[in-house]
Design a protein that fits this description.
With about 325 residues, this protein is mainly α. The protein has helices spanning about 5-35, 40-80, 90-95, 100-125, 130-160, 170-175, 180-185, 190-210, 215-245, 265-285, 295-325. About 75% of the residues lie in helices and about 0% in strands. It is flat, with a radius of gyration of 22 Å. About 45% of the residues are buried.
Length: about 325
């Protein structure tokens, strides 16, 4: 399986990202230990000059990792035809014990990269490196996640065998299945919708106040990942069955297939973007105020709020549209 062209591309991208992040991790440790903006010695000047190069490299890796999640999910769906018993990406991921851990790692990298890019952009707008230490703590975390993701993905693809007999999504997300997927599929539709649209209303309301209130921003930073979890539960329990118009088909991955108009991408892209921007707004609101960013931070928080509102509103609107347009009636 490792010789499959899309697999080679994913492995190459993740390997290069990891190789870039290893020396970056070492430099981040050095900077955190020796950064002294009040000093004008040679070492401090070298650190200040090098940080621009390091930030550029990390930003490049972060962008690659943002795209890697979508590419990994799309490739997993396309590879389903290679395995007996697989009908979608679930079967491909189930073909190895490293499949779903790799997906979880990629989701974690996505959000860490998204938030770091926002933090880096904010720090670059200040004349006195206002968030340089926080940014490099973020690099340490991002580097660890990128290396873990690369290792899990390589182990996953090396472990894939064409002779593997895997299971379809019905076993994981079916009513008679076991595990978290089956539990989410079994949530009562009315409860799922109340949680989904109630959570969207609360999160969007917090987004409107983020630019004016640091407390609202901090609350948004907590609400956004919680809303992401609620949204995924809503997709599994109630939205997916209305798209498929089958009461027992709860798979969130089949939404990515061509026969459903790649609706999953339309649904997940705004959800991931809204969650990432909400988390970034929460982090910026939680960091200490900096005088050099007094004119920069409010407009930036405003733009993050707009992205959060737009993404969650689009996700909610698309979900409601599919439920209303479906011929399936559950309630």
């Amino acid at each position: 399986m490792i010789a499959h062209p899309p697999v080679l591309a994913l492995v190459l991208a993740s390997t290069l990202s990891a190789l870039v992040m290893v020396p970056t991790f070492v430099f981040a440790l050095r900077l955190l230990a020796r950064w002294d903006p009040s000093s004008g010695n040679e070492e401090q000047l070298k650190l200040e000059k090098t940080t621009y190069l390091v930030s550029t490299l990390v930003a490049f890796v972060a962008v690659v990792e943002l795209a890697s999640l979508a590419a990994f999910a799309f490739n997993a769906d396309r590879m389903a035809v290679l395995f007996v018993g697989a009908m979608c990406a679930v079967g491909t991921l189930n073909a190895s014990s490293y499949g779903f851990p790799t997906l979880v790692a990629k989701i974690a990298v996505f959000f860490a990269a998204f938030v770091w890019l926002v933090l880096d952009r904010t720090d670059n707008k200040g004349r006195d490196y206002p968030f340089i230490l926080q940014k490099y703590w973020g690099i340490l975390l991002l580097a660890l996640l990128v290396v873990l993701d690369a290792a899990l993905q390589l182990a996953y693809f090396l472990d894939l065998k064409a002779s593997t007999i895997t299971s379809c999504c019905g076993k994981l997300f079916g009513d008679a299945g076991l595990g978290a997927g089956a539990e989410l599929a079994g949530i009562e539709p009315r409860l799922a919708l109340v949680l989904l649209f109630g959570g969207l209303a609360i999160t969007i309301a917090l987004s409107f106040g983020t630019a004016r209130s640091r407390l609202m921003g901090r609350l948004l930073g907590l609400a956004s990942p919680a809303m992401f979890a609620i949204a995924i539960a809503g997709v599994i329990s109630v939205i997916s069955v209305h798209v498929y118009e089958q009461p027992h088909h709860h798979c969130p991955f089949c939404l990515l297939k061509r026969e459903y108009g790649f609706f999953g991408f339309l649904l997940y892209i705004p959800l991931f973007a809204a969650t990432g921007s909400g988390m970034a707004a929460g982090l910026l609101s939680a960091l200490p105020a900096r005088q050099s960013l007094s004119d920069v931070l409010p407009p930036l928080l405003g733009r993050l709020s707009i992205l959060t509102i737009s993404g969650f509103a689009l996700f909610g609107g698309l979900s409601l549209w599919k439920i209303m347009a479906s011929r399936l009636t559950l309630m």
